[in-house]
Amino acid sequence: MNGFIASLQFITAIPLGKQRPFDPRAIIINFPLAGLAIGLALSLFDLIASTLWPPGLASLLDVIFLAAVTGALHLDGLADAADGLYGQRGREKTLAIMKDSRVGAMALVAVVCVLLVKMAAVGAINHSRFLALMIVPAYARSAMIFGMRSLPYARGDEGTGSRFFDTPLTPMDFKFLAVPVILSLFLGWRGLLLNLSFAAATTALIFLYRRKLGGITGDLLGAMTEITEAVLFLALCVGGGR
Q: Computed over its alpha carbons, how large is the radius of gyration of the chain?
């Protein structure tokens, strides 16, 4: 439980009492379960919002809720990643731009586009809506484990996230990913599409990061979460979401 709560404290803004011991490996391993908790909160919020407001407004509030419950942590990473990766810059220049707190045009465009895609896609999901909204955040947070497993930390020992890369991850560290995978089986053919979309999005982003930087950073992990989440919501809308 300490690892699960520490993971929630790390990737959300939910007040969970006393800070748990900082154990990077335990935090990483529990990303899928922490994402599932976020998804469950989203599904419950959606039940209330859909009862009180029209579908379009409810989906907008759902997306705002997701940003609020995570403290916009992943959106901040998406913004920095968009500014840094845009254009043909060298590795060091890209890393310097991502570290800069200022927000550029590409950051604004990327964040707005991802939020709009999420809002439209969430509003179009009609089939097993409660379950769908619950497991997508779990998959999106699980993507970070694949990023950490596949790529070295791009900032070396100087970066604040270096401790998360001290111990290489093993296949057993992915064990909690089995929870959203099993739940996805209840979505029928959409569950298969969800898993294929997850694999495709994660692989594509890892390939991009490897080509651009030869590694990964906290900002790129945040961007991976946001982009994967948007892709999976889109996947659940195939066929009109019915």
A: 17
Q: Which of 224, 78, 216 is nearest to 152 (CA)?
A: 216
The pLDDT tens digits of the residues spanning 43-66 come to 999 999 999 999 999 999 999 999
pLDDT in tens, 183-205: 999 999 999 999 999 999 999 99
Cα separation, 201 vs 178, in Å, equals: 18
Task: Name, in order, each residue with C-beta under 8 angstroms of 166's C-beta and a sequence gap of 6 or more.
Answer: 24
Would residue 225 count as lying in a domain?
yes
Residue 212 half-sphere exposure toward CB, CA atoms < 13 A: 21
pLDDT for the residue 160: 61
Q: How many CA atoms lie within 13 A of 205 on its CB side?
A: 30
Q: Which residues contact 61 (CB under 8 A, 6 or more apart)?
A: 45, 49, 53
- Residue 79 domain-assigned (yes or no): yes
Query: Hey, what are 229's tokens?
Result: 């989440």
Number of domains in the chain: 1
Question: Does residue 146 fall inside a structural domain?
Answer: yes
Show the domain range for 116: 2-154+167-241
Any domain includes 83:
yes
Does pTM top 0.90 for this prediction? Answer: yes
For residues 179 and 33, the answer to whether their CB atoms sit within 8 Å is yes
- Tell me the sheet residues that pair with 153: 216
